[in-house]
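Cytochrome c oxidase subunit 2: structure, please.
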Amino acid sequence: MAKTAGLVGLVGIGATGCSTDEVLRFGWPVAVTPQAEKMRELWTWSVIAALVVGVIVWGLILWSVVFHRKKSEELPRQTAYNLPLEIVLIVVPTVIVAVLFYFTAITQNYVTDKSAKPDVNVDVIAFQWNWEFQYPDFKTDEGNVVSTVGTSGEIPVMVLPAHKRIQFKLRSTDVIHSIFVPEFHFKRDVFPMPEKNNQDNVFQIDQIDRPGAFVGRCAELCGSYHSAMNFEVRALEEADFAKYMEYRKEINEKTGKTYTTAEALAKVGCKDWCSPLATTTTPFNTDRTAREASGSGQK
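Here you go.
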C-alpha cells in the first residue's frame, strides 16, 4: 500500500512539470494533420475511460481488502446468484464497448476518407532498404517525373506543401514495408503488387498544419538494414513548394542535370528547420565489401 501511494505521489510530482496538452497526449507526438488530431482525441478519451474503469476496479479491490478481511473461522454467508449485479456486469461493459466502437468507427472513417481531387499526388515506392518519392503531377524539362531516390549515401527527403490535401499511393518492389511519420499519427503497410493483395494502397491527409521538418521511418521488419530505412519530410509554404518544383524541373547549369532535392531546397532558401539534407539520421553503408571483420587490425 505504501509503495503504491509512493508511486502515485512520484507520478503526480513528475506530471506537474508537464502542460495540460502534454499530459492529455499521454506520450503521443504533437499532431500536424487534422487526421492525426482526431486520432489523438480518440486515444486521449480512450485512456481516460480506461483510467476511470481502472479507478473503480482498484477501489472495489481495496474496499474488499479493507472491509472483508477474515474476522473469524466462521464462513460468511454464501451467495450463489446476484441477479442485479450480474445484469450490471453485462450491461456496463457492453455499453463501454459500444461507445468505444462508435467513436473508433467515426475516427477511422474520417482518417481513411479520400477526396476525388487531391491537391498534390505523391507515389511512395519502398525497396530494401530505402525510399523513392515520385510526383506524377510534375515533369522535368526532359519529360521525366520529378523524383527523389534514397541511396546508401543520402537519406531521401520528401518535400510536401503545407495547407494542401495530399494523396499518397504506396507500392513496394520487394517485401512488405511500412511508412510511418510519427507526427502524422498514421502508419500504413506498403505491399508489393497491392492490387493483387487486395490492399488499399492509397491514403490522404487534409493538410499539414504548419511548415516543418519531420522524420519518417519504415515500421515493418523488412530485412537486414530495416533500422536504417529512414527518410525525412519537409513541409513548405505553398509559394516555397511551387518554387521548389520549378527548380526540380530545370537544368542546373553547373552539373548539366536537373536540380536534386537538396539543391532545389537550398535554392528556395530553407530556414534553420529546413535543412536541404537530412539532419536527424545518417545513411548506413549497405555495401558489404566496405565492412571489415571485427578482429581486423589486431595482433
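Notes: The helical segments are 2-15, 20-25, 34-67, 83-112, 238-249, 261-268.
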